[in-house]
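for the writeup, i need someone to sanity check this before i put it in the appendix. the sequnce is what the collaborator sent (i think, or maybe the updated version? ugh). structure was predicted straight from it, no edits. if anything looks off just tell me and ill rerun, i have time this weekend
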Amino acid sequence: MSELSTIEIAGLHKSFGALEVLRGIDLAVEPGEVVCVIGPSGSGKSTLLRCVNLLEEPSSGTIHVAGVDVTDPDCDIDAVRRRIGMVFQQFNLFGHLTVRENVTIAQRRVLKRGRAEAARIATENLERVGLVDKAAAYPAQLSGGQQQRAAIARALAMDPELMLFDEPTSALDPELVGEVLAVMRGLAAEGMTMLVVTHEMAFAREVASRVVFMDGGVIVEQGPPEQVFGAPREARTREFLHRVLEPTRVSEAEIRGDDV
């Protein structure tokens, strides 16, 4: 693995009681890479992501983020987390604060930015996600897609070196998914380093630098999207992709009125 890796994971295991969820993960994410992690439910994808910033504590193994061993007991994890943006399935916005206040509060409390600077940076990032016109609105006044975009703006306002996305579209109605993925495409185009757990196969195929397929707590296969989707080496990868892609193909054909 490269010394320049933004994330470097070696021998990662995670158990919850007798249940071993991660069974020896080795993975590196290089600066500017977009790595999409796919796989069936229960394969350990979200647990892997949550271990990166110690929302879940690994049972064994090491994780380096920007050269810092976050599994070292002496690590200042709060300092590391300030370098990592994380976007969850749920938006976790403060309902009693406006969108602008949601994007400024951590800047002021954690980064100690002044009110004017935090407001300026909030505006810049709300513009990045297409929400500057909703700055004075409250979360309950937004659609799910708008709330998720606000959550992304909040993470970006902290100037992260790395963005983690844990199935950011899974709680959204289908018609709202595209607006969130468009923001993520924009971040990828800007060169943001991203580790994305997703079930959006078209996004992974289009945007990922590398696709990682997980099943049963291990990495079964990884490679460029054209290889993983177009010519998967492992039978388990082929089986998974057949199951998740074939219904989409059928439904698209039915919409066009094709014979299926």
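The CA atoms of residues 143 and 242 lie 33 Å apart. Strands lie at 7-16, 19-29, 34-38, 60-65, 68-69, 84-87, 162-166, 193-197, 210-215, 218-223.
thx in advance!!
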